[in-house]
Structures are given as C-alpha cells and as structure tokens.
Specification:
It contains 15 helices and 16 strands. By secondary structure, it is an alpha+beta fold. An eight-stranded mixed beta sheet has the order 6-10-11-16-15-14-13-12. The protein has a five-stranded mixed barrel with strand order 1-2-3-5-4. A hairpin with a 2-residue loop joins strand 8 and strand 9. Helix 6 crosses helix 8 and helix 6 packs across helix 15. The longest helix is centred in the N-terminal third of the chain and has 23 residues. It is elongated. It binds 4-amino-1,4-dioxobutan-2-aminium adenosine-5'-monophosphate and magnesium ion (MG). 4-amino-1,4-dioxobutan-2-aminium adenosine-5'-monophosphate (4AD) binds next to strand 11, strand 15, strand 16 and helix 15.
Length: 432
C-alpha cells in the first residue's frame, strides 16, 4: 500500500505521505478536528481542517468511531508540543474498516475485563510502550552476546528431563512415551557450551507453578547464557555487564516508551552503574532476622517480602550469593570450603521486582554429579547424556537464566508481570 509509518514520516516533514492508522480518540471545535491516531509504530495527532477537506468529509470524519481503521493522505508537520515531534495535516481520509462499540473506552476498566480483551488491550499506548521495551531488551540481548563471542543455540522445548525439579512440570504425551515442556534449557546449553564455548539461548519455558503472584507466569521467556571454563565469580561479571547493557539500550532507544510509562530515566541510569553489590545468603538471613522477620531461618528460601526487604537496603540490583545446597537444584557446584552451600547467586531487582536472574557454577566432578542425581531421586538413565559431558573432558563452567518478563516489568516500572508478555498464561487464564 506504500504507507509510511509515522516514525518514518519524521524524516519527511513538509511532504505529503500516505499512512494507515486507527482512530483512538478525537475531539473537535468549530472548524477543526483533532484525531488521536495510532499506526502501530507510534501514537500521533491528525489535524483536520474544514477548509482543507471540505464540508462533507469534515462531517463524516466527525462521526468516525473509536478503532475505525483509515487511510490518510496528509502533510507531515512538525509538532513541537508532542514528544514524537510530528503530526499529520489531513488532506484526504478513507475508511478501511469500520468499528462499532469498541469495548475498551478511554474510561477506566478492571483488570479482568482488560485481560479478557487482551487481544484488543494490546492496542493501548501503555501496552504498546511495554512491548517496545520488551523488543528492545530482546534486540539488545542478541547484540550483547553476539558482540561478546556467544553463539545462539536453541535448546528443545519437548524434553525428557526436569532440571528445576519435578513438581512444576507440564506433562504431555510423546507418542507412546512421556514428555515434559521445558522448564529451562540449561542442561542442553551446558552440552552446547562444551561444543561451542560460550552460548546463549532465548526461548519459552513452562512452569506448572501454582503461584498466583505478580511475578509468576506459567509460560515465560528466558535468556540462558552458558560459558565453558568460567567460574561463578566471572559469570557474575557477565551478568551485571549484560543487564547494565540492556537497560542502557532501553534508555537510549526507547525514550518515548519510557515517557509513556512514566519511568524515570535518572533512576534507571543508576541501575546501569557497575558493579552491583553482593551479599551472602548467610548475611541476608541475618539482616532479615535483625530486622524483625521471625518467619525465616537459615535454610529457608526467600519469599517475596524477604527479597523486597533485602533489595531495599541497596540502591541497585543486588546479588545474593551461595544459597543452601538443600534448596537448590542438583546441578549446582558445592562451595569449595563448605558443604552446606553452593556456588550460585540470584540477582534481586530493586523496588520490589524480585529475582530476575538465577545462576550458578555447575558441578563438574563426575562422581559428585552421579551422587547428586541419585540423592535427588532423579532417573539416572534420563541423565546419562548429561553425565557424559563430565565423562568426556568436563571443565568448570557457569551460566545463568534471566527471566525476560520480570526484567520487562522492572525496566518499565509496571505492577504485574502479566503486562510484560503479549498473551500471558496464568494460573487461571489461557484465554485469549
Ligand atoms: O531461577 P530459575 O528457576 O533458574 C533456572 O531455570 C536456571 N536453570 C537458569 C540457568 O542457570 N540457566 O529461573 C531463572 C529466572 C528467574 O530468575 C526469573 O527471572 C525467571 O527465570 N522465572 C520466572 N519468570 C516468570 N514466571 C515464572 N514462573 C518464573 N520462574 C522463573
Ligand atoms: Mg531462581
């Protein structure tokens, strides 16, 4: 149709262009109509002057309803009052698709209503901004890892193993066998690291978690880098450098989206300053107990109030190091000087956004690995291939997983992870 998007049109001030848009709102006064438009790339204003389009077209535009799709021929004009910087002076407007009684009006709607209309809710300016940030985090991830010599590797989604424990597995049939939807590509990424050195994946993962919190999705997307010949300390440096890089990319490339979301860029900038603080699990537990948390003791996993409290002691994301072995998966490497904790860390985001990265050094001793698998009651025959990685030239290696939606939620400063993915799968929702 040879349309330009409004973002492209910024380079064509003074020219006449054709644009395909939807009407989100409008107001008129006398001989002028202000159309609030969106064309997918951005939200913008269209000015309709009676003198310019004639009486008949002016009247018909006045009666166009919300979400009517239109083709506009118009002149690109500078608009210094909007952050976008341009608007369209309409010369001709043709209706492409009509729209009657669009359910999401400019008034307030409840969350359930909006979630039931997620397929339409995505059209709103806030949701648009969130998806722009999500896209930038993905784009910058590929850029970062490509610049640092990582190979993108795609682990399978249908699997026979359960790296993060068996209680949260989605079961399915695989012809006459059992299979599970992947909870994490990690074990496969470890195999890939032994083949390619430094690798990363980005894909969907599934957790049948009966959690109904603002941080839990049933289906979420994870970035999982894995690095051969890399210690946990070295991995922490990659983690902070990577997170800082993708936040910087959003600050640089998504100013309009951050403005729409009301996210303070100065605050985000402080989260790009390295290094991030590190606190041991032991010290974190002590901090909580000293501050009156009587619902936790050494050996327990943190709940979200605990994470939020710990994070509030720091002005940046904080690493919590070396959790008890008993609450972490079988593959984590034991601490060299202690047998009760493992070489791992979770990265906790500020402002109550919770854990966004989980990572560890992986066990690389063959005998210890076999014994870990047995102690966790995992079927050793299912893990034969995984143990082979240590049988044939095992090396120290480390990796981590960054949850995309939690990172989007954090960077955007929004309340709930359900808005960080186009079509969220939640405990009670698989529609639309
Ligand atoms: O901490 P997790 O479970 O770690 C792993 O899966 C490792 N195998 C990753 C690795 O080392 N390759 O998950 C990693 C991250 C969490 O920090 C969190 O950001 C996100 O994935 N995550 C979730 N996000 C949304 N909804 C859920 N239910 C999530 N569970 C984990
Ligand atoms: Mg975790």
């Amino acid at each position: 149709m040879s349309y330009l998007t409004i973002l492209e049109a910024k380079k064509h001030i003074g020219e006449d262009i054709k644009i395909g848009a939807w009407i989100t709102n409008k107001r008129s006064s006398g001989k002028i109509i202000f159309l609030q438009l969106r064309d997918g790339s951005a939200f913008f204003q269209g000015i309709v002057l009676k003198n310019e389009v004639g009486e008949e077209m002016f009247e018909s535009i006045k009666h166009l309803s919300q979400e009517t799709s239109v083709e506009i021929l118009g002149t690109v004009q500078e608009d210094t009052r909007s952050s976008l910087g341009v608007e369209i002076l309409v010369k001709d407007l043709q209706v492409i698709g009509s729209s009657q009684e669009y359910p999401i009006t400019p008034k307030e709607h409840g969350t359930d209503f909006l979630m039931d209309h997620r397929h339409l809710w995505l059209r709103s300016s806030k949701q648009h901004a969130v998806m722009v940030v999500r896209n930038e985090l993905i784009r910058a991830t590929y850029e970062y890892f490509n610049q640092h010599g990582f190979l993108k590797i795609d682990p399978p989604i249908l699997t026979g193993s359960s790296p993060e424990g068996t209680s949260e597995l989605f079961h399915t049939e695989y012809f006459d066998r059992d299979a599970y939807l992947s909870q994490s590509g990690q074990l496969y990424m470890e195999a890939a690291a032994m083949a390619f050195g430094k690798v990363f994946s980005f894909g969907p993962t599934f957790r049948a978690e009966k959690s109904k919190t603002r941080r839990h999705l049933i289906e979420f997307w994870m970035m999982e880098p894995e690095m051969a010949n890399t210690t946990q300390d070295e991995s922490l440096e990659v983690q902070e450098d990577y997170l800082s890089y993708i936040i910087k990319s959003v600050i640089e490339n998504c100013p309009l989206a951050l403005e729409t979301l009301g996210r303070d860029i100065e605050v985000l900038k402080t989260y790009t300053e390295l290094p991030y603080p590190r606190i041991s699990y032991d010290d974190a537990i002590e901090l909580l107990i000293k501050n009156g948390f009587d619902d936790i003791q050494w050996g327990d996993d943190f709940g979200s109030p605990h994470e939020t409290f710990i994070a509030s002691h720091f002005s940046k994301p904080v690493f919590i190091l070396n959790y008890p072995k008993a609450i972490k998966p079988f593959y984590m490497k034991a601490h060299p000087d202690r047998d009760d904790v493992v070489l791992c860390a979770d990265l906790i985001a500020p402002e109550g956004y919770g854990e966004i990265i989980g990572g560890s050094q992986r066990e690389d001793d063959l005998e210890t690995m076999i014994s870990n698998i047995e102690k966790h009651n995992l079927p050793i025959e299912e893990y034969k291939w995984y143990v082979d990685l240590l049988r044939y030239g095992g090396v120290p290696h480390s990796g981590f997983g960054l949850g995309l939606e939690r990172t989007v939620t954090f960077v955007c400063g929004i309340d709930h992870v359900r808005e960080a993915i186009p079509f969220p799968r939640l405990l009670n929702r698989i529609y639309p």
